[in-house]
Amino acid sequence: MTHYNLYSQLMLHMLKSCDFLSFNHKTVNLMYLENLVRYSPYFLTEPGFVTLLSQILFSEKSLLSPTYDLAQKSSILLIRICERIAPQQMAADTQAVQQMVENILQVIIMVEGGQ
User: Fold this and answer.
1) Which of 62, 72, 43 is nearest to 103 (CA)?
2) Closest Cα to residue 42, out of 3, 5, 91?
3) Residues 6+ apart with CB under 8 A from 100
4) N or C, which terminus of the chain has less Cβ within 10 Å?
């Protein structure tokens, strides 16, 4: 195993084991989200990572946050993630990507409805 693989596996373990939904501070939430997006190219092909992204991004601690700044910055991070998901990665985890698309549509409907 190379140092790169060891580092990426350790980072992935830390991202997965961290209880993001228990964070109660906007700055901590944003830092976690930014790191998740920054290092996502290393993990997008990992099984379950797109599902993890979807669960975190479409939570009340991110896109669905009542705090406008956090929701706005989370939407920008979602766009960055969508830009990074290559077609071959989408094919590898189609169910998770489909769930993410459905979540995006729900958020659009909520925004259009003034929520």
Assistant:
1) 62
2) 5
3) 50, 53, 54, 57, 58
4) N
Q: What is the pTM of this model?
A: 0.68
CB 7 within 8 A of CB 42: no
Rounded to 10 deg, the angle between the 26-38 and 49-57 helix axes is 150
Neighbours of 27 (CB within 10 A): 9
pLDDT digits (tens, 9 = 90+) for 68-107: 888 888 888 888 887 777 665 666 667 777 777 777 778 7
Assigned token pair, 110 = 């909520």
Q: Where are the alpha helices (DSSP H) in the chain?
A: 3-17, 26-38, 40-43, 49-57, 68-84, 87-92, 94-112
In this prediction, residue 86 carries a pLDDT of 64
If you ran DSSP here, which 8-state letter would residue 98 be given?
Answer: H
Tokens of 7: 């580092």
